[in-house]
Amino acid sequence: MRESMEADREGARGRSNGSSGHSGRSSGTGRISGAKAVQAAKENLEELTSQPCEAVSSLVRTREGWAVTLEVVELERVPRSTDILASYRVEIDNEGELMGYERIHRYYRNQAGGE
To answer: What is the residue extent of each domain of the chain?
Structure first.
C-alpha cells in the first residue's frame, strides 16, 4: 500500500513538471510560443501607449525570447490615408515578460513601403 502511494506521488510529480497543461509554452522547451509572444507584446504596448495595435509586421525569435514589430495608429486624420502610424519593436522574454520596447519608425499610412 505504501509503495502504491509513493508511486502515485511520483506519477503526479512527473505530470506536474511536464509541458501539458501550460498552453503558452512550446512543448518541452520551457519557452513561450510565438503566438503568445505576440499577444503579450500587444497587451504591453497598448497599456504603455494607450493606443490599439493595428497590425503585426514581424516576429523574430531571439536568444532571450521574441522581438515583435507592431504597427500603431498614433494620429487619426481625415482622410484615413493621411493617418500617422508608427512601428514599435517590442521584446518579450522566454517567460512572456516585457523586456523593452522602442518606436523605430513613423510614417503616413499612404506611404508605399512605410518609408
So the answer is: 1-30, 31-114
- The CATH classification number of 31-114 equals 3.30.505
Would you give the DSSP letter of residue 114?
G
Q: Which cell is 58 given? A: 514581424
Strand 98-108 to strand 84-93: parallel, antiparallel, or no bridges (unpaired)?
A: antiparallel
Instruction: Read off the C-alpha cell for 16.
Output: 506536474
Grid cell for residue 98: 516585457
pTM, to two decimals: 0.72
pLDDT in tens, 30-86: 799 999 999 999 999 999 999 999 999 999 999 999 999 999 999 999 999 999 999
* DSSP strand pairing (84-93 vs 65-75): antiparallel
Q: Where are the beta strands (DSSP E) in 1-115?
A: 53-61, 65-75, 84-93, 98-108
